[in-house]
């Protein structure tokens, strides 16, 4: 029961060579730049058609900026993605809000019928939270918290999750969910406490692959390797990657008490 529940909330991003290792999962994050490959596109379309929940990421981290919206939406429609990320620009609140407005309009004009995830941005925690509040005036379905949140602001995403939920309730938007984009720290502290909350939809990360790339096992307290994933070319030792995926799922499901800063 526990494993099925966690598979419904945890997306594990892997290179093309290892997609089959996630076939039984229920929650997926596909990358738009990798969707240029027909096999990659087909894999995620099949997951959607078979009842999985597929989010198409705009590959901002990988491309350096969001993919052009018309191309991105066309891929989402072809993939039958359940949700897309609206454009966001690191630290830039006003530009991000303008792009959210434009992105929703363009997506609907092109016939996209899925859900929208907006990612708050700001140079301070207060500006970031104000960005989120203003996003709630748009017809979005999810607020995404970047893995950069903790490195930028030096505090736990758990408190940002609670702050976003409070903002949703204040704006009469209890329908809006929260998603954790990536994992910059240890999943047992950065992710697991958040996933216990019913309004947190899920999390995605390629963390098991980062450890597999340096032939290390993912374990409690392990520091994130300073490498990146090549989703087109990377191939890992399958046994190590399988072990790391299982460890990632287990660490995301842990429920322990931690002491956090009381700052947002």
Task: Produce the secondary structure layout.
Blueprint: H1 2-7, E1 10-12, E2 27-31, H2 38-49, E3 53-57, H3 60-63, H4 69-79, E4 83-85, H5 93-109, E5 115-118, H6 125-135, E6 142-146, H7 149-153, H8 157-170, E7 177-181, H9 187-190, H10 192-195, E8 200-205, H11 207-213, H12 238-252
Parallel strand pairs: 1-8, 2-3, 3-4, 4-5, 5-6, 6-7, 7-8
Helix pairs in contact: 5-6, 11-12
Number of domains: 1
Element string (H = helix, E = strand): HEEHEHHEHEHEHHEHHEHH
Principal-axes geometry comes out as globular
Number of strands: 8
Report how far apart the termini are.
33 Å
Strand order, main sheet: write it out: 1-8-7-6-5-4-3-2
What percent strand?
5-15%
Radius of gyration: 17 Å
- Please work out how many helical segments DSSP would assign: 12
Rounded mean pLDDT score: 93
CATH topology: TIM Barrel
Structure description:
The protein has 264 residues and is α/β, with parallel strands linked by helices. It has one domain (2-252): Alpha-Beta Barrel (TIM Barrel). Helix content is 42%, strand content 14%. It contains twelve helices and eight strands. It has an eight-stranded parallel beta sheet with strand order 1-8-7-6-5-4-3-2, covered by helices on one side. The two termini are 33 Å apart. Residues 256-264 have low confidence and may be disordered.
List keywords for this structure.
12 helices, disordered C terminus, globular, eight-stranded parallel β-sheet, alpha/beta, TIM Barrel, 264 residues
């Amino acid at each position: 029961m526990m494993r099925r529940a966690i598979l419904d909330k945890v997306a594990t991003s892997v290179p093309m060579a290892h997609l089959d290792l996630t076939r039984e999962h229920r929650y997926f994050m596909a990358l738009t730049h990798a969707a240029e490959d027909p096999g990659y596109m087909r894999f995620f379309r099949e997951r959607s058609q078979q009842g999985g929940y597929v989010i198409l990421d705009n590959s901002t981290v990988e491309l350096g900026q969001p993919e052009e919206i018309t191309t991105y939406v066309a891929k989402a429609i072809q993939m039958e993605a359940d949700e897309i990320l609206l454009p966001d620009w690191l630290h830039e609140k006003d530009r991000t809000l303008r792009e959210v407005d434009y992105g929703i309009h363009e997506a609907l004009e092109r016939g996209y019928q899925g859900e929208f995830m907006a990612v708050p941005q700001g140079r301070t925690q207060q500006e970031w939270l104000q960005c989120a509040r203003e996003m709630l005036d748009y017809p979005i379905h999810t607020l995404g918290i970047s893995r950069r949140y903790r490195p930028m602001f030096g505090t736990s995403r758990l408190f940002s999750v609670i702050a976003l939920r409070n903002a949703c309730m204040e704006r009469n938007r209890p329908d809006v969910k929260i998603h954790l984009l990536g994992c910059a720290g240890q999943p047992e502290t950065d992710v697991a406490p958040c996933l216990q909350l019913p309004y947190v939809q899920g999390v995605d990360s390629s963390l098991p692959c980062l450890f597999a790339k340096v032939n290390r096992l993912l374990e409690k307290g392990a520091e994130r390797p300073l490498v990146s994933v090549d989703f087109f070319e990377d191939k890992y030792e399958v046994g190590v990657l399988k072990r790391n995926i299982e460890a990632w799922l287990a660490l995301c499901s842990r429920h322990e008490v931690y002491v956090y800063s009381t700052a947002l």
